[in-house]
Amino acid sequence: MKVAEIKNEIQKLVETENNPDILNNVYEILEKAQQEARIKEAIIEGALKAEEDIKAGRVYSSEEF
């Protein structure tokens, strides 16, 4: 199945589901995935900034630290 088809099927299932426990579980799974994506993005951004700082000489020696 393609991504668009999967989303469509999930949407249909969610729309017909009335059990709050199941809906909460789905919500928690999707929210956790979003949080993990934001954390990953922040880590990558920090690493890229650190590489730029190193290349630009914005570092401290062990003695200075």
From TrEMBL:
This is Uncharacterized protein. It comes from Ohtaekwangia kribbensis.
